[in-house]
Amino acid sequence: MNEPTASAITPAQAWQTLREGNARFVAGQSSHPNQDASRRSSLVHEQNPFAVIFGCSDSRLAAEIIFDLGLGDAFVIRTAGQVIDDAVLGSLEYSVAKLGVPLILVLGHDSCGAVTEAKRTVDTGEMPGGHLRNLVERITPSVLAAQRNGLTEVNDMVVEHTKQTAARLVESSSIISAAVEEGRTAVIGVSYRLAEGAADLVSGYGALTHPAVVRSPAS
């Protein structure tokens, strides 16, 4: 089974392909596409992924498995708590400007340790040491935004952080925002449930099949 290439599909079609792969994974019917020797050989000189998945580094969040993908299907970027930095933005801009990828998916998940640590810092006022402090500082605005909306559970804060991260990608990068504005790329926020294995759409920017969540960062 071969997945469609980036140049051949729209952002909405890319999301539909990911949804179908996740549905197979949830049902225990993964097809493990594009994982044979011929696929490997075909990718030696070029790649044409149809989606970017920017997710948390958590060991339980293996993007290619969750969405039943294979070699060359997804351009994957991972940091703890899907925290944005210059390297992340550069990688995402490369995928859009050079690879023409039509969909950026921001992937958060319940029981996220990084978000839990940020919540603990907000609750206690005790900042962790080392580079963990930088990680917590980048997640804290999402924790505070969730609390302002009356949300106190970590998993609710994870969803808020996923939404905030998707919005920040569009706001922070002129390359990404231009691609979204022109309809070449969409950015979506997706929250993954560990127990069920399901990936739920929580926000989106660009042309998708879920108009209720398609909006601009300013709205």
N-to-C span? 40 Å
Corresponding CATH superfamily? Carbonic anhydrase
* Uncertain residue segments: 1-5, 209-219
Overall shape: it is globular
Return the CATH architecture.
Answer: 3-Layer(aba) Sandwich
Count of individual helical segments? 8
Can you tell me the number of structural domains? 1
Order of strands in the sheet with most strands? 2-1-3-4-5
Radius of gyration from CA coordinates: 17 Å
* Count of individual beta strands: 5
CATH fold topology: Beta-carbonic Anhydrase, Chain A
Largest sheet: 5 strands, mixed
Family: Belongs to the beta-class carbonic anhydrase family.
Catalytic activity: hydrogencarbonate + H(+) = CO2 + H2O
InterPro entries: Carbonic_anhydrase, Carbonic_anhydrase_CS, Carbonic_anhydrase_sf
Keywords: Lyase, Metal-binding, Zinc
Mind explaining what this structure looks like?
- By secondary structure, the chain is α/β, with parallel strands linked by helices.
- The protein has one domain (6-111, 166-213): 3-Layer(aba) Sandwich (Beta-carbonic Anhydrase, Chain A).
- Helix content is 43%, strand content 16%.
- It has 8 helices and 5 strands; from the N terminus they run ααβαβαβααααββ.
- It has a 5-stranded mixed β-sheet with strand order 2-1-3-4-5, sandwiched between helices.
- β4 (186-193) and β5 form a beta hairpin.
- α5 (113-124) packs across α6 (132-148), α6 packs across α7 and α7 (154-172) packs across α8 (174-181).
- It is globular.
- Residues 1-5 and 209-219 have low confidence and may be disordered.
